[in-house]
Amino acid sequence: MAPETTQVENPFGLTAFVKQLDPVGTGVLVVLIIMSLASWYVMLTKLWDQRRLRNDYKEVQKGFWTAGSLRDGISKLSKDNVFKMVAEDGVRAAQHHEGRLTDQIPLHEWVTVSLYRSVDSISSRLAQGLSLLATVGSTAPFVGLFGTVWGIYNALISISMAGQASLDKIAGPIGEALIMTALGLFVAVPAVMGYNWLMGRNKDIQEKLRYFTADLHSYLVSGARVDQAAPRPAAPAAGAAVRK
Predict the structure, then answer these.
(1) Rounded to an integer, what distance in angstroms lies between the CA atom of residue 193 and that of residue 134?
(2) DSSP one-letter code for 164
(3) Each residue's pLDDT tens digit, 174-187
(4) Domain range enclosing 191
């Protein structure tokens, strides 16, 4: 008959670590939890905003430039489409180019200022929250390291007061203190990866905004859209005779 085995609870696990925290260690743990929740909230909301802007651009490509007029193209866009806001600002600037001050500014410069003011507002909205991710990614490891240093300090004090310096008395408390460093890295790594990923997606959206703004500016000033994909005339072959 096999002997009965009794399960012994691990005295140096994560649960024991949380139970043994003093007010300073508890504060560090709470700060790391808040930083993690805030960074994940920013990443999820920014992904949602970027998805909506990408869908807005697809809507522009599908129905805006194929409309009969600029007004018809604007009316085809949904109410919350940011490209619709840019187009309306450009039309408003082109139609209200009068007054003592604005008469001194050429029409193309006046339209350019209005369009890029709208683009800058959208870019600023895209960048909101990314500074939080950068801050969390750069400071969370140091917050965790502070918790580790504080935990090791308390562990050494407890060992010195007990008067026992054996390996089993040192390894447990110091190992628990190192959990804070691991938690700091667990918070920082997703924040850094999310920051870099969101920045790359923001650059792609801003590039689409610049393309749309350039085409809209060309249409408002000259009445024709500049087609970036239009074929260029072929260069003359080498050695070809030049007619006078």
Answers:
(1) 10
(2) -
(3) 777 788 888 999 99
(4) 24-222
